[in-house]
Write a structure and sequence with these properties.
The protein is an alpha/beta fold and about 210 residues long. It is about 50% helix and about 15% strand. The chain has nine helices and seven strands, in the order ααβαββαβααβααβαβ. The chain has a seven-stranded parallel beta sheet with strand order 3-2-1-4-5-6-7. β1, α3 and β2 form a beta-alpha-beta unit. α1 runs antiparallel to α2.
């Protein structure tokens, strides 16, 4: 809707000013670029819909108590999923399919963000690989550990070579992520023993 409105406004303004076809084309292409390119974001939260109550509760907590303009949420699910109750919030980006186009779109938001918070690592290993080859993305990322991501991340089935590669990527992501938020003190012990004993730890209050 925003894209269509802006294209219409600029197309009308150019037409009444008798600009050349070349100027019209360049202006409209710039409008498309401006709308589709992620703007600067202070706090980017990336979530999956594995637990609707937790996801919706967290989004509502942040939006009802903090500045909505400072927070953007990317949720790997469809906006049409009736299990959610988030229809009143405009700072949510829905990515129902983890396809190449959507992954690239998510990376553009990560690139534009000052801080990135991963509330779940229920993404394909290719997402983590993309992060690992961009050290700047890893540096500004914080993993908000929610249990299963810490204890049940290893793949135990399938082709042994593929399994080894995927598990290595999972392990490296958890080791090299910029900082970690742990929910329970005992989880910190597990993380440091399994992945990175020198990792920077943040408190939950620091991500608001």
């Amino acid at each position: 809707k925003t894209l269509c409105n802006k294209l219409g406004e600029n197309n009308y303004a150019l037409s009444i000013s008798n600009h050349s076809i070349s100027n019209v084309k360049n202006t409209l292409l710039q409008v498309v670029s401006d709308v589709l390119t992620a703007k600067k974001i202070k706090h980017l939260h990336i979530m999956t819909a594995s637990n609707y109550g937790t996801v919706d509760g967290y989004v509502k907590l942040v939006n009802e108590n903090f500045n909505n303009n400072d927070h953007i949420f990317i949720i790997r699910d469809s906006k049409d999923n009736t299990a959610h109750s988030l229809e009143n919030f405009e700072n949510i980006i829905w990515l129902p399919e983890a396809q190449k186009g959507e992954l690239n779109r998510m990376l553009s938001y990560i690139d534009a963000a000052e801080h990135v918070y991963w509330h779940s690592m229920g993404w394909y290993w290719t997402t983590q690989l993309k992060m690992l080859i961009h050290p700047s993305y890893m540096k500004k990322s914080t993993w908000v550990e929610w249990g299963a991501d810490l204890f049940n991340w290893k793949r135990n089935d399938g082709n042994p070579v593929i399994r080894y590669v995927v598990n290595t990527i999972h392990r490296l992501w958890r080791k090299k992520v910029g900082s970690v938020v742990v929910i329970f003190p005992t989880d910190e012990d597990v993380y440091r023993k399994t992945f990175n004993k020198k990792q920077k730890r943040k408190s939950l209050s620091e991500i608001f």
